Amino acid sequence: MFEQVAALIAEHERLQDELADPALHADAARAKRVNRRYAELSKIKAAHEQWQQLGDDLEAARELAREDEVFAEEVPEIEAQLADAQEKVRRLLIPRDPDDARDVILEIKGGEGGAESALFGADLLRMYLHYAESKGWKTEILERDESDLGGFKNVQVAIKANASDPAQGAWAHLKYEGGVHRVQRVPVTESQGRIHTSTTGVLVYPEVDEPEEIEINQNDLKIDVYRSSGPGGQSVNTTDSAVRITHVPSGIVVAMQNEKSQLQNREAAMRVLRARLLAKQQEEAAAEASVHRSSQIRTMDRSERIRTYNFPENRIADHRTGYKAYNLDQVMNGALDQVIESCIRADEESRLAELGQ
Fold this sequence. Notes:
Distance between the termini: 7 Å
Protein name: Peptide chain release factor 1
Pfam family, one: RF-1
Family: Belongs to the prokaryotic/mitochondrial release factor family.
Strand order of the largest sheet: 2-3-1-5-4-9-10-11
Number of strands: 11
InterPro entries: PCRF, Pep_chain_release_fac_I, Pep_chain_release_fac_I_sf, Prokaryotic/Mito_RF, RF-1
GO molecular function: translation release factor activity, codon specific
């Protein structure tokens, strides 16, 4: 398992020399990629050095224990530390998703349940915004379509971690959120106090780092402008500032009306279009290469029911990992770490099993 470490450490040294070259930083996109890879390899190098040091410490403790029983008491403790260090290196050697360091565009869409689904969409948005805040990430609402009761039929938010370490990236954590989220509670519109089950969909796309990364032929775009409207169809301005962009070859349609400026709405729509095109390209490549495993946590099937939020029982349950806890009130306030960590760990286990490690 550790044979590949030597090659990775050699790569780390090459990247260190490359980062010291001023010429690299003339290309911002390449500099970002090199920094991300360097940060990833730095963690492997540090973990491997710790594992080696503990190995040396254990050998020394065993040798001294032959002469002094006091040192024998240290052996079991060092053995446990060595096992933990080895496991850490093993997990760091799992090939990372190349998009882990990317920022994301997250979209919440109403599903079954009408007004209640839209209200839960607003609750999910609040949950993700609080989670991002707890991570020190930046958020930007790109588009929202409000319902009459204050929910969201559709809302899109850009979440930026700007992480150099892929393990700390927004995509590394939020890619598991795509799917159908089911809520069980008494809706505000329910006069009899009955519990209803509704669903809300979440889509997550890795955001394109540089516009040039996704080549878009302007002749492939159909762009319409129209007057934006608010809840209930009321006009909210008197100019044609809303923008709808159709990418004809793929059939992807993106509409934006959140900003008062047509230019700003167009720029936001292009950001979302690039992200969707990147996701589409990756999914097609993954399907062709058959690299998506049946056990993989992040799935291309966005109709998958991934999680249930049961308000009467204050219960959160992830159906992919078996995670269950009775702290839904805290989760809805952004305490998503343990839920997402269960997805990360399950994905790592399936990757380790595939690698035979």
